[in-house]
Design a protein that fits this description.
heterodimer; A: 330 residues; alpha/beta; 13 helices; B: 333 residues; Rossmann fold; four-stranded antiparallel sheet; 24% strand
Chain lengths: 330, 333
């Protein structure tokens, strides 16, 4: 199958007072039609910057693409003008953010905001747009659509607002939906409603989803494939089963081990990765994870490993074979 | 097997107890604020926290768990009910006396960025409680700060640095050092690890457990991360819309929840296992507004098992066994 989105050797810089900071460094991954790819990582890993680059929203945040290509259906988004990008956004690729309150305009009704995005992309009469908007709200599981259409964002709860955001994002049948921490601000009972909705929608409208999250639990529930990022680099990439069954990068392994069990006997002490996440302006030499890594060798301090095929997936570690062999001990 | 924990329970000393605690916040409405309504943030909650244990409160936003924590520490005045700490009734104690008791009860907050004064050095932040309570000065104070920093895993040579020079996890350690500076008996950890990254969260959780053993602390741990709660707690209280709906020992409660809300909460917690076959209880709707809670059982609007009785009759929190209480007409166990 041909990929829908292909990110090739992408690097992004941000302008800071003291020159540039490289927020993501030479990352490559692809998304196939109809699949969900989760980008997981902690703060500063570059996962949100990746989503902003695909939407070409970086320019509004003081960032720029320094290198690389973003191919969407063979069109290079990096070379497009913002004018051309406006056609891609909404029509082909949509995005939803973490905080649905700030993403909706507080002074317009839900209906007006939905109709606006339908009319501006599809050029249909308002009456048709109203009907389509009602259908979209029903699709995302909102009842009493005629009442909801006339309400303002503050009259809706957090989960409801996120449903409206998803409806707006789906207005023009995008082929790719980017969801940047869509459930982080929501309570667990609501989170599971939204995750179920995203899974259902993916099958109903046949789109691909790139979901960005810090929560391995969320990734386990929705992902087909997982991209693990650390300090601006992709460290491991594989199917959801590969990542959870046999994590091959020491960071992925550590991340999974630091989550307490949900059932079974309780651990006395939690496994924890030593040290802290490095600041992007003071990255360690060699492999970025080496000061925190229990497998680190001299080689790791000196040279940075590339993302290469190992253990049937892609991994950026000099010592991944030792990591796999180590598995037996736990 | 059943007998041992029960005996232990009965012999254990209660450190903090709330009886029928209510906390209502007024909302003013209408011309000249004539129609006064209330947000019933905590409505008739009774609970006991035993010495040396970790008691966790879980629930969704708006359930009143943070408000309850603050009321128990008398950071808010309560609307009605009573609270006793270490055998002393602190419900309407004079502020001056309360200040003495506060030494024994400390708080660690969620956000390590806004809970530390950015213009104070670390040594001043940790040393401030010692100074205010006239416990140590000069060299003695300096030594105590060094000791505290070592205890929480910070490098004491960095005591003259400012908060912005530390990462989120390290700042949370500073907050913990400040909280234990006065040798308290009781610590309220209000979402203390929720804002931290997973790899750092585990470090801080381990630190809290170590300190509990070393210093004999009692924790009230407020959190929404259910995996962390299971790891750290001895007992758990589940809150919904200002009510305590279930209390029990952690493993038993996770394995066999008695309240339908507890069961939904645990079943929807994302499991870090793609092969999980856990059946999810997806609740309809969202938590109603605490200013206008539903009649009868407050959960009946979302409960899959609700009957007419639930709409009209409010269930009391009653004991199912020695270690478990539930407020439901039709408990699941």
């Amino acid at each position: 199958m041909k990929e829908l989105l292909r990110v090739e050797n992408l690097s992004v810089d941000f302008q800071k007072e003291k020159g540039f900071i490289r927020a993501i460094d030479n990352i490559s991954f692809e998304v196939y039609p109809g699949e969900t790819v989760c980008i997981v990582g902690e703060s500063g890993s570059g996962k949100s910057v990746t989503s902003l680059s695909i939407m070409r929203l970086l320019e509004y945040e003081n960032g720029k693409i320094a290198n690389g290509e973003i191919l969407f259906n063979d069109q290079n988004l990096v070379e497009m003008s913002q004018e051309q990008m406006r056609q891609v956004r909404g029509n082909d690729i949509s995005i939803i953010f973490q905080e649905p309150m700030t993403a909706l305009n507080p002074v317009f009704t839900i209906g007006k905001q939905l109709i606006e995005s339908i009319v501006s992309h599809k050029h249909v009469p308002k009456k048709v747009a109203w009907e389509q908007a009602c259908e979209l709200l029903a699709l995302v599981g909102i009842n009493d659509v005629n009442v909801r259409m006339k309400q303002y964002p503050h009259e809706l709860s957090g989960g409801m607002r996120q449903r409206v955001m998803i409806a707006i994002a789906l207005a023009c049948n995008p082929k790719l939906l980017i969801a940047d921490e869509p459930t982080t601000a929501l309570d667990v009972t609501i989170e599971s409603q939204i995750l179920t909705l995203l899974n259902d929608l993916k099958n109903k409208v046949h789109m691909s989803i790139v979901l960005i999250t810090h929560d391995m639990g969320v990734a386990a529930e929705v992902a087909d494939r997982i991209v693990v990022m650390y300090a601006g680099k992709i460290v491991e990439q594989g199917t959801v089963y590969q990542i959870f069954d046999e994590p091959t990068h020491p960071y992925t392994k550590g991340l999974l081990q630091s989550i307490p069990n949900e059932s079974g006997p309780r651990e006395e002490r939690l496994y924890s990765i030593k040290g802290n996440i490095p600041s992007l302006s003071q990255l360690p030499a060699g492999c970025r994870f080496h000061p925190r890594c229990e497998y680190a060798t001299e080689q790791c301090k000196k040279s940075e490993p590339d993302l290469v095929v190992g253990n049937n997936r892609k991994v950026a570690c000099w010592n991944f074979e030792r990591v796999i062999n180590d598995k037996v001990e736990q | 097997m059943e007998n041992l924990p029960i005996n232990q329970m009965n012999n254990r000393e209660v450190l903090l107890e709330g009886r029928n605690v209510k906390k209502y916040f007024p909302i003013k409405e209408g011309l000249l604020s004539r129609n006064q309504k209330f947000v019933k943030a905590v409505d008739d909650v009774s609970l006991k926290i035993y010495k040396g244990e970790t008691f966790s409160l879980v629930g969704e936003s708006g359930s009143g768990k943070s408000t309850l924590g603050r009321v128990l520490l008398r950071l808010y005045d309560l609307t009605s009910g009573s609270i006793s700490f270490d055998g002393v009734d602190i419900t309407s104690i004079k502020p001056k006396k309360m200040r003495n008791i506060r030494k024994e009860m400390q708080v660690i907050y969620q956000d390590p960025f806004s809970s530390l004064n950015p213009r104070m050095k670390i040594s001043d932040i940790i040393g401030e409680p010692l100074e205010i309570n006239k416990i140590a000065e000069g060299v003695e104070k300096h030594n105590r700060i060094v000791e505290l920093m070592e205890l929480v895993g910070l490098d004491p040579t960095r005591m003259n640095h400012y908060p912005h020079e530390f990462s989120g996890g390290q700042r949370q350690r500073i907050g913990i050092a400040r909280a234990i500076a006065l040798n308290p008996k009781f610590i309220l950890a209000d979402e203390a690890v929720s804002a931290l990254d997973v790899s750092v969260q585990a470090q801080v959780v381990n630190l809290l457990k170590d300190l509990q053993q070393k210093l004999g602390l009692t924790y009230l741990f407020i959190a929404h991360g259910l995996n962390i709660v299971r790891h750290i707690s001895d007992r758990v209280g589940v809150m919904y819309l200002g009510n305590l709906v279930e209390v029990g020992e952690v493993e038993e409660l996770y394995k066999r929840p008695a309240h339908p809300y507890t069961s939904a909460l645990i079943s929807t917690n994302p499991t870090p296992n793609p092969r999980s076959t856990k059946e999810k209880v997806i609740l309809k709707g969202e938590i109603p507004s605490p200013s206008n809670p539903p009649s009868g059982c407050r959960f009946h609007t979302r409960c899959p098992f609700a009957t007419d009785r639930c709409k009209n009759e409010t269930p009391e929190l009653v004991a199912l066994s020695n270690s478990r209480s539930v407020a439901c007409h039709y408990p699941l166990v």
